[in-house]
């Protein structure tokens, strides 16, 4: 038979040692235990130090999700991009909005209970919500950024590099100054590309909505006043009192007696002008306008009428040819009480829906330099400015000859115009009548043109010569393109509202680092 084997424990072993040996063994075990504890502490400390270094470097803020909307995640740098876009749009007019750019946005209220920081962040997140909906739809459709969109990305990045160079900064330093401390060139490229993809897809989606002739006719019925062309005369006469200001620059209310007297005179002048217009006495009308210094507002574009109180009177369908009316122009004083400031005296002649096609054209402007006059007096406001028209004509004729030598086509014209024009738009699409300055408008709409027609036109308003290249008529009447564009834009807004409202959003503690 086998004998049962006895087991020996660590405690048994210790009992067999001498007292000294036992003490040494115990101390050794204690030292080993302490080494293990110190090792763990050292490891944890190293991890914490590494985490702190990583946090300070901004890696987490640049890459970890701070805000999620529509199933898409965005980092602090993404939010910062839209935040600072909102801020920069307002900062240029800070004094107008009552914003002090030297004080933290979190310490200034735009309205009760809402700081400027809250306001800008809300707008930034709203923009991100739009971008999320658009880029998600683009991905589902397989839509890729267009060449124009990519060109916008490249141009935006290049503008940052140029600005950095102008201020003597590195690109990275400039980005942290302009878009927050965590922005880097790679993060900036990513968010800008995403932004222009969304812009691209928004245009693509808007244009995809089909608009029928019935749709356009229906739109016209509801918006005839903004699409019709009005033939009318309108003059604004005012009380003629000079506004006074206090030491703080605030306007001072007019003296009640002076105001009443001026208003009585104003009414007499307006009645006199109305009578002359009703009688069709053009000479008398001109005399009164000159005498009173009335402002001539006759025959503005239909789209401009909505900005004037007389527009409602003029667009009333009850108007008849030759009818003349007076429309009050009221202002408010320091107590928010209205007072009569002026009269619009208006004569309605006719109202029609013009059916013409808008035009596309390219434009090159060479402005004439001002000439120094021997008898010019800088203190005299009445001295007439003279321009070197001959030199401007010679320059634009040379550019015309160069363009013709290069092939004389649309592409070479646009390239030449973009390189040489004096601060003027080079490409126009679907232009309406009476939008361009008189001489150019007369050339564009005074006769029929073929694609490729061109002309040097003297522009008195811009004090220069314009080489104009006719690039075609729009397929629809101008009013139809306005209606079609408005309908498509409305449908796009409906789509976007529905898409963004369906998105769920969430944020975490990283949002506290936006704009820091």
Short description:
The protein is α+β, with helices and mostly antiparallel strands and 516 residues long.
Write the layout of secondary structure elements.
Layout: H1 10-15, H2 19-57, H3 59-63, E1 67-69, E2 72-74, H4 76-91, H5 94-97, E3 109-111, E4 114-115, H6 116-141, H7 147-166, H8 171-179, H9 185-208, H10 213-227, E5 229-238, E6 244-245, E7 251-252, H11 256-278, H12 282-292, E8 295-296, H13 302-305, H14 310-315, E9 324-332, E10 338-352, E11 357-367, E12 370-371, E13 386-387, H15 389-405, H16 410-420, E14 427-431, H17 438-445, E15 454-459, E16 464-477, H18 478-501, E17 505-507
Antiparallel strand pairs: 1-2, 1-17, 3-4, 5-8, 5-10, 6-7, 9-10, 11-14, 11-16, 12-13, 15-16
Top keywords for this entry?
globular, four-stranded antiparallel beta sheet, alpha+beta, 516 residues, 17 strands, 52% helix, 18 helices, disordered N terminus
Across the major sheet, the strand order is 8-5-10-9
Largest sheet: 4 strands, antiparallel
Percent of residues in helices comes to: 40-55%
| Total separate domains | 4
Cα separation of the termini: 83 Å
Number of helices: 18
Mean pLDDT: 88
Low-confidence stretches: 1-17, 42-57
